[in-house]
Amino acid sequence: MSLLPSTNDLAGQLARTTVLVVGDLMLDCYYWGDVHRISPEAPVPVVKVNEKTFSLGGAGNVAANLSGLGCSAAVIGLLGQDTASNRVKEMLNAFQIADHSVVDAQRPTITKTRVMAGKQQVVRLDEEDGSDVGSATAERILSAATELLPRVKAVILSDYGKGMFASRDFTQTLIQACKKMGVPLLIDPKGRHWERYAGATCITPNSAELELVASSPVKTERDLIPVAQDLHRHLALDWLLVTRGPKGMALFGKDAPPVMIAAQAREVFDVSGAGDTVIATLAACVAAGLNFSQAASVANTAAGIVVGKLGTQPVRWVELGQALVEASRRKPAPALWKVADLQEASERLMRWRQADQRIVFTNGCFDLLHPGHVSLLNQARHLGDRLIVGLNTDASIRRLKGAQRPILPGHDRAAILSALEDVDMVVFFDEDTPLTLIEQLKPDILVKGADYRIADVVGKAIVEAYGGRVCLVDILPGHSTSAIARKLSAK
């Protein structure tokens, strides 16, 4: 796979790119609440609603991802004459997305309402009319798209199976118009009848969608490759990108071996909208001048970010750019993605707190990990939902313990800690104490070993001031890095 341009260069290229999205516009509504009892009226949970939020869904979320990446985005979709339509238009304007949507008073604006208890979805309510669009409405959509084509560098068809692309003639007219203008057209497909997508530049099904069309399993690479290659030839596609969840992606092109892209090792909160992020990032990068192999690699990184968010949320360039920089510097090490700088730590904490999870923090040098360390971390992890380890930098350890320490450099210490199941995140600090880090992270629970007195724990006053607490956990006697180091030096 060829090298990517620098993040600064890519950011500049994306900023000069305009991408058009044609597809099913939706409003995603979330009721966030808690469940403490079962209804006396029926055996169903009672959700006490604390907050109601809205986001763009479907083609709107694809366009929001483009905007988040710094592109100029335009969208053509169907809206009703209703309150939901007004809200979609307001959000498109907030994202600075050029709105060329077509209003059909006979159809409601597609709305998906999810009732959430914590991070668990209790029920989803769909308001929609999935019937085929009428010929007059289809003509209005085609006219709007034709007018915009000379001004865009890529087109995305976002098919959610809501009737817009049911007609093969309609879909083929769009494909042929893009071919005539030399504009790459990418499609996120739905349903079984993919003949209508024939001749597209690229389609981006997930494994389940591909299995549905192929009527055969594609769980392994051995299963996947012949099925994908047959479909690629049958539909006369330039490219076929299959998203495979935790197995990554597989890219198929003409006269080239398949490119298997490993998934980015990140925590999965919610896969809602991940397909939107993939096709938006892929199209944006192709429009910006990257080849498909490069664009798929960037899209894979973007997908790894967005599945770590709760609810439908677009990727942002600040997240993707940082992740690409980290990936370029990363050395092979087990679960080293758990190591975060302060910005990334803040992003993860926001997601964890949104999911109502308790954050536990402990710190130390963790030089030559021993059973005492493992016991402390295990006990700390069981006090909450997420465990953050503040790790002294090499310079900090030298100031505290002398020039002969640390025995293992920071990269190795972080890699070993990251490999432990109990550890959710590792953050370095360069000061002699983690006081500043504690102030910034604001953990719910601060943990040290029972060889400390609570009154002496660094950060106690800060944590207790905002309602957190300090806990001391048992230590295993006879285990000490300093003792191990002395024993080694004596030999």
Key attributes of the depicted protein:
alpha/beta, UDP-N-acetylmuramoyl-L-alanine:D-glutamate ligase, Rossmann fold, 17 helices, 20 strands
Write the layout of secondary structure elements.
Elements (H helix, E strand, L loop, with lengths): L6 H9 L2 E6 L1 E14 L6 E14 H10 L3 E5 L1 E2 L3 H12 L3 E2 L2 E2 L6 E8 L2 E8 L7 H14 L5 E5 L9 H14 L3 E4 L13 E2 L3 H8 L6 H14 L4 E5 L5 E5 L5 E3 L12 H14 L4 H15 L10 H13 L12 H13 L4 E6 L6 H11 L4 E7 L1 H8 L8 H9 L6 E5 L5 H7 L3 E5 L10 H6 L3 E5 L7 H10 L1
Parallel strand pairs: 1-4, 1-10, 2-8, 4-6, 5-7, 10-11, 11-12, 12-13, 16-17, 16-19, 17-18, 19-20
Antiparallel strand pairs: 2-3, 8-9, 13-14, 14-15
Q: Can you walk me through this structure?
A:
The protein is of the alpha/beta class and 491 residues long. It has 2 domains: 7-28 and 55-112 and 128-329, Ribokinase (UDP-N-acetylmuramoyl-L-alanine:D-glutamate ligase); 337-490, HUPs (Rossmann fold, 3-Layer(aba) Sandwich). Helix content is 38%, strand content 23%. It has 17 helices and 20 strands. It has helices spanning 7-15, 59-68, 83-94, 135-148, 168-181, 207-214, 221-234, 274-287, 292-306, 317-329, 342-354, 371-381, 394-401, 410-418, 435-441, 460-465, 481-490, and strands spanning 18-23, 25-38, 45-58, 72-76, 78-79, 98-99, 102-103, 110-117, 120-127, 154-158, 185-188, 202-203, 239-243, 249-253, 259-261, 359-364, 386-392, 425-429, 445-449, 469-473. It has a 9-stranded mixed β-sheet with strand order 6-4-1-10-11-12-13-14-15, with helices on both faces. α4 (135-148) packs parallel to α5 (168-181), α8 (274-287) runs antiparallel to α9 and α9 (292-306) crosses α10. The protein is globular, with a radius of gyration of 26 Å. The chain starts with 6 loop residues before the first helix and ends with a helix. Mean pLDDT is 88; it is low at 331-335.
